[in-house]
Fold:
Amino acid sequence: MAAILVRQVSKRFGRLQALAGIDLEVAKGEFFGLLGPNGAGKTTLISILAGLARADSGTVRIMGRDVKDDYRGARRALGVVPQELVFDPFFTVRETLRIQSGYFGLRANDDWIDEIMSNLDLTAKADVNMRALSGGMKRRVLVAQALVHKPPVIVLDEPTAGVDVELRQGLWQFIRRLNRDGHTIVLTTHYLEEAESMCGRIAMLKQGRIVALDSTANLVHRLHSLELRVRAVGAWPAALHSAQAGGNSRLVKLHDYLELEPVLAALREAGCRIEELELQQPDLEDVFLEIMQRKE
Amino acid sequence: MTGFPTLLYKEVLRFWKVAIQTVAAPVLTALLYLMIFGQVMDRHVRVYDSVSYTAFLVPGLVMMSVLQNAFANSSSSLIQSKVTGNLVFVLLPPISYAEFFAAYVLAAMTRGVLVGLGVLLVTVPLVELTVREPLWVLLFALMGSAILGALGLVAAILAEKIDQVAAFQNFLIMPLTFLSGVFYSVHSLPAFWQGVSRFNPVFYMIDGFRHGFFGVSDVDPLASLAVAGACLAVVSALTLALLKSGYRLRN
Structure:
């Protein structure tokens, strides 16, 4: 059984086709990334998983529970950290977490609430009103709220937007630990280096469709291109194609590592003396840009 | 266990935390009405033979406070949650639309009845008042607050901004409650306006409620009960249908 199963899900807002026949399966225990530019449909997809919006067609199951027919089961299995920094200004941190816990039918849940607060460094703020918290602290409470009912599947919609570096590190450590403990994590983020370092598998969305779905390693290796930046003294061999790259440097495009040695040999033969050399590998951002800029 | 008791608790706690504004202030407003109107009118107006104007005024003011505050509670809570986005915390858990309805309406009734009790208590030293048939009093207070609580939900579901709820309150709820015989018996109105009043459902709620105090009223309390019951059924059905569809809440 998959943690998340999405079959042929479509959603339209007026004339905008927000999602066009999405198929997706996330296995239990995965750390999964959902990437795409603004308006690609990430938040719409998450809203449908969470029951905050209804799909026009298709099926969605969380831990085998249909989000419509067995919405109680599906919602119990899912914890969502929403993108916007929302809070109820009437309550303290502890009240907020107790109330959220009660919404899931869990009345005597203080031990777990204390544990979450301690893990997220919220204990000192337990009796502070939500209004008085900084943005970063409010973000932690949002994470805590998503965890009160110990959901097996956790969705984080841009959890680090506007969060300072220190908190971001702490948050990722905590989420990694949740993943190690067996929770399935689905993450959307605009910080591609975060997705690259955290996610085992990634889906890229564009205009409501999945345009790439693969392991992070495969995606990064998908671009068969390396760039060799060389600063050399001497006459550049005419046969060696290159582009100027600022200063005295030149850029040579390679398809793989096997092409490296012939380039160096050509430079040696031409009598060039290499002063600086750097091999640049593509990262997720290059792959993302390549896929997003690709014409249909 | 479901989320219903917690949602009800949260909704009650929400207004109780600001009770000065949500309970004490409307009690004071009603008291001011009583002092001003009672003082000015008591010597000039007598509605029923055995009842002074000030005594006549009290049940109307109590019921008006019950109704207005029930509406204010559900409508302001839901629209604020919608506008600020924290409604998501209620939409994510496994709470059914019927539980959602019941929690918001019961909390609205709680605030309405609390304010009503408050108004009644502060008028005790000022006016001599007996309750002849307390069951009518209780029944109309509960039904009236439930109807207005549900209407508050409808207003907040339909509205997209806080001022749209305020418009609903100022242009519909306020005129309906003020022109319902709180300050006068409809029998003192010209025939045309008496006829118009009969189309105002709030008139029946106040008249039936008042009957519980004096044992006399403009309309047979059973007829008022039938109108209030029909209103409750229609407004509840509408609210439940809106909640079930997820209109402007889940999209």
Notes: DSSP finds ten helices and no strands in chain B. Chain B touches chain A through 28 residues (CB under 8 Å).
